[in-house]
Design brief:
This is alpha-1,2-Mannosidase. With 632 residues, the protein is mainly alpha-helical. 51% of the residues lie in helices and 7% in strands. The strands form seven sheets. The chain has a three-stranded antiparallel sheet with strand order 3-4-5. Strands 6-7-8 form a three-stranded antiparallel sheet. A three-stranded antiparallel sheet has the order 11-12-13, with no helix packed on it. Strand 4 and strand 5 form a beta hairpin. The two termini are 51 Å apart. Bound molecules: 1-deoxymannojirimycin. The site of 1-deoxymannojirimycin has 9 residues, from helix 26.
Length: 632
């Protein structure tokens, strides 16, 4: 195992000039010393004396003038103006004192890359729609959503998922019509009114009785897809403004009532557990809860309920949902960790982690995602421990899990299946591709990098995390472009120095990264997952770099080419490395809830659902950040 870390100050290309200050006096002398006056005057000592005199005079004149002009509107001038400044310039001594006052911080010095991207965004004056016709492409994504829905509606309405090849429905998630609810807010965002109407009336008519009558559901899946979907539908249909006004037939209040009713059933998973860790499953019809057959819960599952339950408490005014779910995170705070990293299993009986398997893929992923998102959702609360846990965990990721592949240096996140003392595995699930987006969000808190830099808001660590986010997003994209179909497999392994893994076998031989990425036969399926396009969307919003749109569009085209089913819907694939790929008879709910939503937002106006005003739950359902917007 290589011990060398892929990250150093050198990698970040960050110029510490951010903290450099230039004095007003220095600016004047520097200007004068480089002017013609210098050449004329410095020849004789009288000249030098005259030059000094002129410098003082000029400095005095400039100060007198500055006191009479209005403060400019930019942030730097604001620092100088304000009450303190106004008092100082009210009298002559104030002017003199002002001459020696500590000058304001200058904006950070940008790297050449940043200057190019900054110029680009200034040049576009806020319009990022240059180049390809992004609007037309966004329309194509909307059409894909309508096609996916039509398959579901025609063959599977009321079931959890569509089997697009056999034209049937299947209840893989307990039978609450999960596709309908997962897709509803996507339809609202895209403005597909007919789907909003159809989904709304199904929910009104069938969901209450299903919540009371259905058998076993998984606490996590039901919370993120169904409770989450209902809550964002409530918000996006204007529920907080007029809960009883109907839109397209269904009153927003119906969504909130159903979310509350379902959460009331789910709460038993928390309250019947002997520890702060909830059981993994709930039997809806008798309101009982029980652990998974092995007695354990997934760490990511128990820590990915809080955005939803917090928002429900804030909408209903009933604190119990928030209190129960936050007990989990408060408890996790107290448990021993490996540099902030956690094992993927936890026992609801003992409340302790089980085993040593550490990864950011399945069963680990959204633990890290919700640490920062729950903190973002509740800024101003006293939950700073979440931010601390997040920062510690990312340091742990960088130290213990981030490596570079050979021969071409793709940055990836591996696993520690046997804990920190065991060997490192260069395995990365596609699920890990949520991380670039989360890192970028954690760094700038949802505002653009350009704005964060201008306002001096980024620490060295933020910049390092943003750089890691960009590197990982590239790796995630290459996981798609390395295959024959242009679609990523479920799992890849990276080639590391000294390892003797065989080649990719079936990847696209044109790719530069064909020797870096290894795809094992059992891992070649694609389930229409969203994580990569989710990160491309967040990175595009934050960096404003159009390459993320380009990559997203390439991925969309591959979905269109290989997963679209003529009779309606989209299918998963058994093997992304062979042409034509063998199809798998399933359309996951998150294709409508997440993948197409993120692609649509990636290609559209950047002010729709701004990332500093909304936090997306792990199933891409946006919840408003309380107090973050005047528009809400
Ligand atoms: C979704 O249900 C969520 O994004 C979850 O966090 C991870 N798995 C799927 C999508 O791949």
């Amino acid at each position: 195992m290589s011990k060398s870390l892929p990250y150093s100050m050198k990698d970040v290309h960050y110029d510490n000039a951010k903290f450099r200050q230039r004095s007003f006096f220095k600016v004047i002398t520097q200007n004068m010393l480089t002017s013609n006056l210098k050449r004329e005057c410095v020849k004789c000592s009288t000249g030098k004396f005259l030059m000094l005199l002129m410098m003082c005079g000029l400095a005095y004149l400039m100060l007198t003038r500055m006191s009479s002009i209005h403060p400019s509107t930019d942030g730097t001038a604001k620092n100088v103006g304000g009450q303190e400044g106004a008092k100082l310039i009210a009298d002559g001594s104030g002017r003199l004192r002002r001459l020696w006052r500590k000058p304001p911080r200058l904006p950070p010095m940008l790297t050449p890359d940043e200057i190019t991207s900054r110029n680009r965004s200034l040049h576009n004056s806020g319009n990022l729609d240059v180049g390809p016709n992004w609007k037309a492409r966004q329309q194509r994504v909307k059409e894909a959503f309508i096609h996916a829905w039509s398959g579901y509606k025609n063959y599977a309405m009321g079931y959890d998922e569509l089997m697009p090849l056999s034209h049937r429905g299947v209840d893989g998630l307990g039978g609450l019509g999960a596709t309908i609810i997962d897709a509803l807010d996507t339809a609202m965002i895209m403005g597909v009114d007919e789907v909003v109407r159809e989904a709304g009336s199904w929910i009104e008519e069938h969901l209450p009785e299903r919540i009371d009558g259905k058998d076993q559901v998984n606490l996590f899946e039901t919370t993120i897809r169904v409770v989450g979907g209902l809550l964002s539908a409530y918000h996006l249909s204007g529920g907080e403004k007029s809960g009883n006004a109907s839109q397209n037939g269904t009153k927003p209040a119906v969504y909130l009532e159903n979310a509350r009713k379902l959460a009331d059933h789910l709460l038993i998973a928390f309250t019947s557990s002997p520890s702060a860790i909830p059981f993994s499953d709930v039997v809806l019809r008798d309101r009982s809860a029980h652990p998974a057959p092995d007695g354990l819960s997934s760490t990511s599952e128990v820590s990915t309920l809080q955005l939803e339950f917090n928002y429900l408490s804030s909408l209903t005014g009933d604190p119990k949902y928030s209190l129960e779910s936050m007990k989990v995170l408060e408890h996790l705070k107290t448990l021993p960790k490996v540099e902030g990293l956690v094992p993927i299993y936890i026992s609801p009986h003992s409340g302790e982690f089980s085993g040593e398997n550490i990864r950011l893929g399945s069963r680990g992923d959204s633990y890290y995602e919700y640490l920062i998102k729950v903190w973002l959702q509740n800024q101003g609360s006293n939950w700073t421990y979440l931010h601390n846990m997040y920062e510690e965990s990312i340091r742990g990721v960088k130290h213990l899990l981030v490596r570079k592949s050979v021969p071409n240096g793709l940055v990836f996140v591996g696993e520690l299946p046997y804990g920190p003392q065991g060997s490192f595995s260069p395995k990365m699930d596609h699920l890990v591709c949520f991380l670039p987006g989360t890192l970028a969000l954690g760094a700038t808190k949802g505002i653009t990098k350009e704005k964060a830099m201008r306002e001096n808001l980024l620490s060295f660590e933020d910049l390092e995390n943003l750089k890691l986010a960009e590197d990982l997003a590239k790796t995630c994209f290459e996981m798609y472009s390395v295959t024959s179909t242009g679609l990523a497999p479920e799992i890849v392994y990276f080639n590391m120095e000294g390892e003797s893994e065989s080649g990719p076998g079936g990847g696209n031989k044109d790719s530069k990264y064909v020797n870096d990425i290894i795809i094992k036969p059992a891992d070649r399926h694609n389930l229409l997952r969203p994580e990569t396009v989710e990160s491309l969307f967040i990175l595009f919003r934050i960096t404003e770099d159009p390459k993320y749109r380009k990559w997203g569009w390439e991925i969309f085209e591959a979905f269109e080419k290989y997963t679209k089913v003529d009779s309606g819907g989209y299918s998963s694939l058994d093997d992304v490395t062979t042409l034509p790929p063998q199809r798998r008879d399933k359309m996951e709910t998150f294709f409508l809830g997440e993948t197409l939503k993120y692609l649509y937002l990636l290609l559209g106006e950047t002010n729709v659902i701004p990332l500093d005003e909304y936090v997306f739950n792990t199933e891409a359902h946006p919840f408003p950040i309380r107090g973050a917007s005047r528009k809400q």
